[in-house]
Design brief:
Rossmann fold, about 230 residues, two-stranded antiparallel ribbon, homodimer, about 40% helix, alpha/beta
């Protein structure tokens, strides 16, 4: 079954994938039979993170590589670097990303006292910044609100929704299909890339709620057709 | 049953309550046995809106009054004016609001092309602006993401969560109790008033999603203790 999915599958690069979010995505995509290229600027760290992901995923193909190689080999590129490395990383990968689908999961989070807030960006959001840096890429904002701990906790299915914002309809569809590969996440079409900043704010809200309840929260959009 | 609730109850003012959101809240609070003072700057409009609310609510006490009277008589004041009237309305009501609980449901929404965005406010959010304007009031941000059509549609129970942000613990508790009076809304503690702007952004995100799906959406926070 997983093998069958794998044969259909798309190759996904996780740029800056050695952090908890990247490893978590590698685990879930790996389990879904997707070929994952877990990228880092340091090959040894990428390979180490990849073996940890495979161990947790139990099944699936996750390979550690340099960010550059990961982006070059992938059909779809997901960026999960901390915001501090967002611009530099994307500039370096302009050539291998080219006109590929670039899913930006980065959130410009800032701690302000005991609160999480969103740094105001001139571009409006990290994803819009990516689009300015890489005008040929088909940028999609998604996965911003999905927590690393739930991604890694394979004893439980994921719950909640992933809001997907993009201007390119095909890139949006490919990303929504990717979301559906993780049981039982649901993609929700959030409209154009201009709405990416709104989803970023949801991430900060959830982190603040996590602090109050000592929980790992996500969101579900109510009132959509089909529940 | 409703009568019993009513006897326990708090008196709630809805400032600027003649719009769809205010009428919707009057309907739901009225059905819950809460005494509602539906306020407007125009007494005839307030009375007209109140009768429409009562008609829809089938049961409950909703009375139309001037904003000033509503705020003076109420235990808890909810502001639902359009953002354009937010500052002026609050300035006028400084005396009758005094140190009461002031629930701010106002969202500084702006249309930008086909998108809904949030106007950046110097104070950070409408609720924080209210706190600056009325330093004695115990300001709470809540109900921003709850849609007018669902409030008015009494054939269906409400679903989803209301994020409640406040610095005053008692005011927060009173507001969370008020949310629980509407079946089956759940209050979620969003932390301090500084987080109100994050909830505002959720409203804009939901309105954009509504546009894509021609739906009336809300949010539910997943992963909280007890579901």
């Amino acid at each position: 079954m997983r093998r069958a999915c794998h044969e259909v599958g798309v190759k996904v690069a996780l740029i800056g994938g050695t952090g908890p979010e990247g490893i978590g995505m590698a685990v879930r995509f790996g389990r879904a039979g997707i070929e994952v290229l877990l990228g880092s600027r340091d090959l040894a760290r990428a390979q180490d993170a990849a073996s940890r992901a495979v161990e947790r995923a139990v099944s699936g193909s996750v390979r550690g590589c340099l960010n550059d190689d990961a982006a070059r080999q992938a059909d779809l590129v997901v960026v999960v670097v901390p915001y501090a490395g967002h611009e530099a990383t994307l500039r370096e990968l302009a050539a291998p990303i080219g006109s590929k689908v670039l899913v930006d999961a980065v959130v410009p989070l800032v701690r302000k006292g005991r609160s999480f807030v969103i740094a105001p960006l001139a571009a409006g959001s990290a994803a819009q910044e990516a689009q300015i840096l890489l005008p040929d890429a088909r940028v999609v904002a998604a996965f911003q609100t999905v927590g690393a701990s739930e991604l890694q906790d394979v004893d439980h299915e994921m719950e909640g929704d992933v809001v997907v914002c993009a201007d390119d309809p095909q890139a949006k569809t490919a990303t929504m299909d990717l979301v559906r590969r993780i049981p039982v996440l649901r993609p929700v079409d959030g409209g154009g890339l201009a709405h990416a900043g709104l989803a970023e704010h949801v991430t900060a809200l959830l982190l603040n709620i996590n602090r109050v309840y000592r929980a790992h929260t996500g969101i579900r959009i109510t009132g959509l057709p089909g529940g």
